[in-house]
Write a structure and sequence with these properties.
mainly alpha; six-stranded parallel beta sheet
């Protein structure tokens, strides 16, 4: 009888009056403090139960009253307190799968969590909620915290553990905790409900400092009953369900996957023997599981067993098996079990990636599972996709996506986009999406390519999805759809530096159009291939594709933009070879065709290339006229890419002729536009040109910064011509500094190898000139003479700047040899070529002639 009287409810008028003073209903109070149910407020007011320390703090903050003022600090009857003779460490605390391996990549997160738990920290929280993907290591983090000596010192009365799982076992957990807290058998029999247990254990704990770890929460109510500590205690909860995490309140922390470097570090700790012998395979495996710690740990344990005898055959077989998705998903750790049913004891199922993912899949409805399988057609994170795309591919409603997000399988990314982890995709693809979903994905993105409302940035976000759409569409029944979509997307791929992908798609489309005898579309493909080869500086391919395009167009319309584009490509190729007369003939022919058409992009490119040739030939007035006409057409048509190319070439022209303010204006405008659109190849070239401008004005630090950044882009995109020019420029910069001839020659030698292999004669000539300058400074006259002779031999006919530079170098060498007649002739030839080109170097040559008492001829 005494026990029943003790547990009799005592109505909490202080708490109810505080609520009424604020004119709030129980439902409103629950919402304001984050309690999942209004009946919890009702129980607290009628004395049936007491709020946990977390909700007690929220109530104090809401009503601006202390716990005592709210009737929440009741005196505990002495006969109910059982003193803890020893510190309690729950025997159900699990151990890590690989306790001998350090916890990789979690130092910063562990430090942050410790700060929340530290009693004196200003950021202290009595409740931490860890959420994240299945297998991301939430439980491992909780175990690491529980084992930390400093954390144990903050909670000297012990640590209690609960593993709830999908079905929840709150009553079993509380009963076990009661036994650990020395609750006698008679008292245990008197407690029948969760409310009884919660109230009794809360009173039993009193002011003791305990750390509670409630793992694998699936049900908010079950978890709430297990949160029984006081303000001196703390509770760590883990859940895979974001919806549960944010409903529980407190400090909510998403546990991320490991990055690639951390993944490799973990595997290196587990299988050091393979770090050097199978480095490539290990990197591929780390990438394949997307940094998921459970997957990495299972892979490491498996390989450790398979390689223990160091047999190369067995090792290779193991690595080969791990390339199979199904094998990776079903790897298990011997002796480690989990419960899909959520029992507090661990049993029934071996730990595997498939098992932990299936626990989440099992709570989905059929339509939700089918939607997940369809979404798995998208590439894995870091790729993202829009909600519009997700709904189109799944043919479902937004609420289904919301459900997948709430259960933690689908992740929300910035810009209102979604993403899926590699392991979730691997599992879902084993169940195969319906073929209609593949068709829906391809059709959605092909329609997106044709839509005028999507800008460059919007399409750039979809690059990986568009590539995937093409993979699914390259089937016999959808060849036509595939090939026509390639025509729309190839320029987009080229703009963003995806050259190999563009080439692969174009070649496939070419075979389709050839088989279908669609000659105009085949000519378009060839035109794209010529343009792509021009960007990649594969000039023999440029000529092959452009000539084949013109041959096809002979049977059709000669007055067509395809024709002008092909002629533009041929002209560009001839310029690079130094065949300026041939180039001008192609370009004038293209310009004549374009005059019969409305203003088009290819007209802008032709005018730009003609201006470049005329600049080389010193015909500056006509060159500027062509630049101006091209810029006007590009601005009128709002053709941003053509405008960017013209701004770049015109800026280089102004730099060459010492008109630095105009060069700065043109190059800055073009660079900003290229960055805005995201044209990586153009960004590379503008950085090069801005470096040239800085170099011309003796700002060597700025020049080096621009060129090094440009070189990074050029190497990434395999832009060989730009790479060779940048190496030449960096060599010239070292020469100007006069500090490190060895570094200068290293740059120049690498650049020369690239330029000679293609070949790029103007770059070859320029590099030999720079080498000659180094040898001349070092007093190596014979080496300097050979370098300047090579520069002269490789200077393209009509390229006045290159020829003038080579001649000036030769003049200096012959002057040192005492051959004044040759020095006089070459010096004057150089001076007049520079002067005709209106290049600032003419002043340098003039000074040199006068300083060496060599007559300056007014005409040559």
């Amino acid at each position: 009888m005494g026990g029943r009287k003790t547990n009799q409810a005592q109505f909490n008028t202080l708490l109810k009056n505080a609520r009424l003073e604020h004119h709030l209903s129980q439902q409103e109070v629950a919402a304001l403090i984050g309690a999942p149910h209004a009946y919890m407020i009702s129980r607290w007011e009628n004395g049936a139960s007491s709020p946990s320390s977390y909700y007690g703090e929220r109530l104090c903050k809401l009503f601006k009253k202390s716990l005592q003022e709210l009737g929440l600090l009741r005196p505990i009857q002495a006969h109910l307190i059982h003193p803890l003779s020893t510190t309690i460490y729950d025997p159900m605390l699990p151990s890590r799968l690989t306790s001998d391996i350090p916890l990789v990549g979690r130092d910063a997160l562990l430090q942050r969590l410790k700060e929340f738990l530290q009693p004196t920290s200003p950021h202290r929280s009595t409740r931490l909620v860890l959420h994240g993907l299945p297998g991301v290591g939430k439980t491992t983090l909780a175990m690491e915290l529980a084992a930390h000596e400093e954390i144990r010192s903050w909670f000297p009365d012990g640590i209690l553990w609960a593993g709830l799982g999908p079905r929840g076992q709150a009553l079993t957990v509380l009963n076990r905790w009661g036994n650990l807290l020395s609750l006698n058998e008679q008292e245990c029999r008197s407690l029948h409900t969760l409310q009884d247990w919660t109230q009794r254990l809360h009173a039993l704990i009193g002011e003791r400092r305990l750390l509670f770890i409630i793992d694998d929460v699936w049900d908010i109510t079950e978890a709430t009953y297990c949160i029984i500590g006081n303000t001196h205690s703390a509770c760590i909860l883990t859940t895979r369900l974001p919806e549960i995490a944010y409903t529980l309140g407190g400090e909510v922390i998403q546990v991320p996957e490991l990055n690639e470097q951390e993944s490799l570090q973990l595997l290196q700790h587990m299988i050091p023997i393979l770090h050097n012998t199978a480095q490539t395979e290990i990197q591929e495996l780390a990438h394949a599981v997307g940094g998921l710690p459970l997957a990495l740990t299972l892979i490491g344990s498996y390989l450790l067993i398979q390689t223990r005898h160091q047999q190369s055959r067995r090792t290779q077989q193991a690595l080969s098996r791990l390339k199979q998705v199904e094998h990776r998903l079903n790897l298990t750790q011997p002796g480690i079990r989990i419960s899909r049913l959520g029992s507090d004891a661990l049993h029934e199922t071996d730990v595997s990636l498939q098992a932990v993912i299936e626990m989440s899949i099992s709570i989905l409805e059929k339509t939700e599972r089918e939607a997940l399988y369809a979404l798995a057609l998208f590439p894995p994170k870091p790729n993202t996709f829009s909600e519009e795309a997700a709904l189109a591919v799944t043919a479902t409603v937004p609420e289904v996506l919301d459900r997948l997000v709430d259960v933690g399988l689908l992740e929300v990314h910035e810009h209102e986009r979604y993403q899926l982890h590699q392991s979730i995709i691997d599992y879902a693809r084993m169940h195969s999406a319906e073929s209609q979903a593949r068709d829906r994905l391809s059709k959605y993105f092909f329609q997106l390519l044709e839509s005028p409302t999507h800008g460059h940035y919007a399409l750039y976000l979809e690059i990986e999805n568009i590539r995937t759409a093409f993979e699914y569409a390259y089937e016999p029944e959808t060849y036509a759809l595939f090939a026509h979509a390639v025509l729309n997307s190839a320029p987009l791929f080229m703009k963003h530096g995806l050259f190999s992908q563009a080439q692969e798609l174009l070649l496939k489309a070419s075979s389709v159009f050839t088989e279908e005898h669609e000659q105009i579309n085949q000519a378009r493909v060839l035109c794209h291939l010529a343009s792509l080869s021009r960007i990649l500086a594969h000039y023999s391919d440029v000529d092959t594709y452009a000539q084949a395009c013109l041959t096809l167009m002979e049977k059709h319309d000669h007055q067509h933009e395809i024709v002008t584009t092909a002629l533009s490509c041929l002209g560009h190729s001839a310029i690079v070879r130094g065949e300026y007369a041939v180039a001008e003939a192609y370009l004038q022919q293209g310009l004549a065709v374009s005059r019969h058409l409305p203003p088009v992009t290819s007209t802008c490119h032709i005018l730009r290339l003609l201006a470049v040739i005329l600049d080389y030939q010193g015909k500056l007035a006509q060159a500027e006229h062509y630049f101006q006409e091209g810029l006007e057409i590009a601005r009128t048509l709002s053709e941003h890419e053509a405008l960017i190319s013209l701004l770049g070439s015109a800026g280089v022209y102004m730099t060459t002729h010492g008109r630095y303010a105009e060069a700065e204006q043109l190059l800055s405008e073009g660079f900003a536009l290229a960055q805005q659109i995201g044209l990586r190849a153009e960004i590379c070239h503008f950085l090069l040109d801005l470096g040239d401008l800085a170099f011309s004005q003796d700002d060597l630090a700025q020049a080096e910064s621009r060129w090094q950044e440009s070189l990074t882009y050029a190497r990434q995109m395999q832009l060989q011509q730009a790479t060779s020019v940048l190496l030449q420029n960096l060599g010239l910069l070292e020469i100007r500094r006069g500090r490190d001839d060895a570094q200068a020659l290293a740059y120049l030698t690498e650049g020369l190898e690239i330029a000679q292999a293609k070949p790029y004669p103007d770059t070859v000539s320029g590099i030999y000139c720079a080498m000659g300058d180094i040898y001349l400074k070092q007093g190596k006259r014979s080496e300097a003479l050979q370098a300047y002779q090579q520069a002269r031999a490789n200077a393209p006919a009509g390229h006045q700047i290159n020829m003038a530079s080579a001649l000036f170098g030769l003049a200096q060498v012959y002057a040192l040899h005492g051959e004044r007649a040759l020095a006089h002739d070459y010096g004057n030839q150089s001076y007049h070529l520079f002067r005709e080109a209106k290049a600032p170097q003419s002043a340098q040559v003039k000074y040199w002639l006068q300083h060496n008492n060599l007559p300056l001829l007014e005409a040559w």
